[in-house]
Amino acid sequence: MFSLKDMLRRFADTYNKSPNSNLGKLIGILHGELAALDDTFTHIREWRSIDNAQGTTLDRIGTNVVQPRGAATDEVYRVLLKSKIARNLSKTDINTIITVLAIALDCDYSDIKIQEKYSDPLEPEPAAINLIRVPVRRLNEVGMSPLQFARIIQKTVAAGVRVAQIELAGTFALSSQYAVLETSPLGLGNPEMTTGGELGEVYVPGNDYPLPI
After folding, report:
1. Are 98 and 131 in contact (CB under 8 A)?
2. How many Cβ atoms from other residues are within 10 Å of residue 60's Cβ?
3. CA-based nearest residue to 78, from 98, 59, 99
4. Which of 25, 82, 83, 146 has the fewest C-beta atoms lying within 10 Å of its C-beta?
């Protein structure tokens, strides 16, 4: 965006190009309106991104990809939109499912691990999977429960494949040395809660609301 000084510089030297002159004040009003218009266009351009858009702008994106909002907040709705776009391109294999979930939660592929239950030594099942690792912190940040997340996974897998179990393990671990307190990212936290591991997720059915997945 050009400045007021740049606009005044375009006039001939016969004019008083001081910002405090009548001409300068008039051009200053025009510059302010153009600056506001430029800010609006910048805002529109930025809100084309799902990560930046809010409110009804997200709803319009949802209309384009046929993903209603329901009672979801903007944070949860962004996950629904990303997962729906990725699901539209999904081939339903394990690697694609991991890709869909990683895109939806904006995390690394290595943060998600899926195990097919046909090889489970205790309870084998031919058409089921276990999601045994999920970024719990990311779920907490968007305010999505394990059951809501499970519904996204169920919509991503092939028809007839069941999501049998979701293990939301935290990072907490006991000390590796006897009688030694460890305050690493895996151990107990300090009073300020700036270090220490995370406990696993606990699902409470009464706190859920249905998502239009």
Report:
1. no
2. 11
3. 59
4. 25
Say if residue 209's pLDDT is above 70.
no
Query: Locate tokens 């005044």: which residue?
Result: 8
173 within 8 A of 197, measured Cβ to Cβ: yes
* Residue 27 dihedral angles phi and psi, to the nearest 5°: -65, -30
Q: Which residue, 94, 196, 83, is CA-closest to 139?
A: 83
Is 152 exposed, middle or buried, given 0-12, 13-18 or 19+ CB atoms closer than 10 A?
A: buried
Tokens coding 101: 């979930």
Residue the block writes with tokens 């776009």: 85
| Residues β-bridged to residue 115 | 130
pLDDT in tens, 119-156: 888 778 888 887 777 777 777 777 787 777 777 877 88
Burial of 129 (0-12, 13-18, 19+ CB in 10 A): buried
Q: Which of residues 208 and 47 earns the better pLDDT score?
A: 47
Residue 203 pLDDT > 50: no
Question: Which residue in 16, 21, 18 sits closest to 5, CA to CA?
Answer: 18
Q: Is the pLDDT of residue 18 over 60?
A: yes
State the Cα–Cα distance between residues 97 and 113, nearest whole angstrom: 10
User: 116 forms bridges with which residues in the sheet?
Assistant: 129
**Measured distance CA(28)–CA(17) in Å, rounded:** 11
Task: Report CA 61 to chain centroid distance, whole Å.
Answer: 15
